[in-house]
Amino acid sequence: MKLVKTFGRGKAAADALIESLERRGAANTARVEPVVRRILAAVRKGGDRALLKYAAELDGLRKGQPLLVSREEMKAAWNSTAPALQAAMMVARGNILAFAEAQLPRDWTISPVDGVRTGQIVRPLGSVGCYVPGGRYPLPSTLLMTVIPSQVAGVERIVVCSPKPAKETMAAAWLAGVTEFYRVGGAQAIAAMAYGTVTIEQVDKIVGPGNLYVTAAKVLVSSECGIDMPAGPTEIVVTSEAGDAAGIAADLVAQAEHDPETLAVLVTSKEALAKRVATEVKLRARDNEIARQSLAARGCIFVTSSVREAQELTNRLAPEHLSVDSEADLKWIRNAGSVFVGEYTPQSMGDYVSGPNHVLPTGRFGRIRGGLSVMDLVKVITVQQYTKAGLKKMGPHAVVLAEAEGLKGHAESVRVRVR
């Protein structure tokens, strides 16, 4: 990992690096956009024929192998799963379910004045496509993180797409009760869910993380199909003044092993801590090839001139995962996907069993939203109702505003009811 001081002789280089990190989302997906556009266009035009071609070429789909994973396959995968893993999945499912239920918005009504009632009703999306990566590692946890909140929301049709689904992922699908699961991934899966084919019917919204190709595809289809957010290659920032160097390094290596594109950053005003963490990271990544690649390419330790500067830099980076020293740090955090507080809260717990979702915003989208939640899977529809007395009381104010805007028809639509 590079050690960069944000002050003194290193300031200019640090400023340039920080500015490049602030542009990271758009810059990364731009690299793969031409290829993604071709795949999206081909699937949109060719439907199943193009989808099967890409599934064979890029996902390893065997000739004659069906796209649809049967419930029998899922059940067999669950039955052959070790009891300890079954138990872990059930614990994760329970915590994700409880967290999503707590997040679920409710119907409510208020009466601001007599004769007027306003409120909201909550309705689920009709269909959701859950993307579950399956390239380097099986990710049954992502299946649970995307499917369970959809179920809590009440989504009627839940589709899962995953390339070369591993036994563990199919076992998680059985546990979650998935009925529509396709062995296809990448931009081609996003295209199928967004545009629809004969085999895979179009969905209302696509959720879930993925590599640069998946992230670029989600962004490109978002004008026609809802998406949760760009949830691309993993990002971790640890902002610490008094943390344990071994624990910090372990978290950096853990997230770095996801993908060679992982962004891994430590921000501190303590140079001694920075050096200890750098040493620990080197030791802990020694036998982890992917972590070594990402840490060499995109690993960085910023040493700032003050604690305040460290906090400001963290908010500028708006990371997917953020670890801090104590609960007091929550006061200054403005931008992050998910926050992990204290020495005994490794980020890996959030990846698996804590309950909060691990599908989180990357590429600085932590500036404008948090992670996937049940609220992404429902529509909050506002409702209003007037009695004649209520309209007589409030209507004149609406008439004045309508006339101020020159919208005579708006004003008349009120007047005609209260004459």
Alpha plus pi helix count:
16
Shape field: globular
CATH topology-level name of the largest domain:
Rossmann fold
Percent range for β-strand residues: 15-25%
CATH class of the largest domain: Alpha Beta
- Return the CATH architecture of the largest domain: 3-Layer(aba) Sandwich
Tally of discrete structural domains: 3
User: What is the number of beta strands?
Assistant: 14
Which strand order do you get reading across the main beta sheet?
1-11-10-9-12-13
Kindly provide the radius of gyration, computed on alpha-carbon positions and rounded to a whole number of angstroms.
Answer: 25 Å
Class derived from helix and strand content: alpha/beta
The residue ranges in which pLDDT falls below 50 over 5 or more consecutive positions are none
Q: In the CATH hierarchy, what is the superfamily of the largest domain?
A: Nitrogenase molybdenum iron protein domain
Binding site for NAD(+): 131, 188, 211
Keywords: Amino-acid biosynthesis, Histidine biosynthesis, Metal-binding, NAD, Oxidoreductase, Zinc
Active site: 320 (proton acceptor), 321 (proton acceptor)
Enzyme class: oxidoreductase
List the helices and strands and how they pair.
Layout: E1 2-5, H1 11-22, H2 24-46, H3 48-59, H4 71-79, H5 83-103, E2 108-110, E3 116-124, E4 127-131, H6 140-153, E5 157-161, H7 167-176, E6 180-182, H8 186-195, E7 205-207, H9 212-221, E8 226-227, E9 235-239, H10 245-256, E10 263-268, H11 271-284, H12 289-298, E11 299-303, H13 307-317, E12 321-324, E13 338-341, H14 347-352, E14 378-386, H15 388-404, H16 408-418
Parallel strand pairs: 1-11, 4-5, 4-7, 5-6, 7-8, 9-10, 9-12, 10-11, 12-13
Antiparallel strand pairs: 2-3, 3-14
Helix pairs in contact: 2-3, 2-8, 2-9, 3-8, 4-7, 5-6, 5-7, 6-7, 8-9, 10-11, 10-12, 15-16
